[in-house]
Specification:
- The chain has about 190 residues and is an all-alpha fold.
- It is about 55% helix and about 0% strand.
- It is built from 9 helices and no strands.
- The longest helix is centred in the first third of the chain and has 17 residues.
Length: about 190
């Protein structure tokens, strides 16, 4: 049995599209067409979480809502929307997203956005998406390690990483109220 009805899947799609359009980002309509063609709105989120039709969109929307709610005003809301909704975009290419190979899905997501769609990301958005997996990120060279060190000092990365973990169930639900407090003590 599926979690969502067709109507609910389409409502979720419309909510995501509305959020993306609210950013007024150049290239957003091309990106939305890609999301439709790639079946982003109907993919599973993972083999381990959001494992059902529409799970990827639901997970991305959850990450976005948590991050927006926990933002203390220091992060640009448009950047939160972009990074949260697109952090797992590469999963549209995998029946089972865990089969993503050596480079990791943060890398593949920024490659799809930049190289394939020519979608502009700020450096901070790039790092938030590229390193959203935190310590699970594969850092094979000095430049990536340097970029990850920079990301760890940015509140956008911290919001996306923490919100992603909360949505996946990697942090207990009781921690959700603590996120804002943790972020407020984050020294930049």
């Amino acid at each position: 049995m599926e979690k969502f009805t067709q109507e609910q899947l389409l409502e979720q799609r419309e909510e995501i599209i509305k959020l993306l359009r609210s950013t007024n980002r150049k290239g957003i309509e091309t990106l939305i067409k890609f999301l439709d063609v790639s079946k982003y709105f109907f993919c599973w989120g993972s083999q381990n979480h959001h494992k059902y039709t529409g799970g990827l969109a639901e997970h991305s929307l959850q990450v976005c809502k948590i991050a927006l709610e926990e933002n203390d005003g220091t992060c640009d809301e448009n950047s939160i929307i972009i990074a949260a909704l697109l952090h797992d975009i590469c999963k549209v290419y995998y029946e089972f997203p865990e089969e993503r190979g050596y480079f990791g899905h943060g890398t593949k997501s920024v490659q799809i956005l930049g190289d394939y769609l020519n979608f502009y990301l700020t450096e901070e958005e790039w790092r938030a998406i590229r390193f959203h997996m935190g310590s699970k990120t594969n850092l094979r060279d000095k430049e990536l390690s340097k970029q990850y060190s920079i990301a760890q000092k940015e509140q956008l990365w911290y919001l996306i990483h923490t919100s992603d973990c909360l949505s996946c169930g990697n942090y207990s639900k009781s921690m959700r109220g603590l996120v804002k407090g943790i972020i407020s003590t984050f020294n930049l």
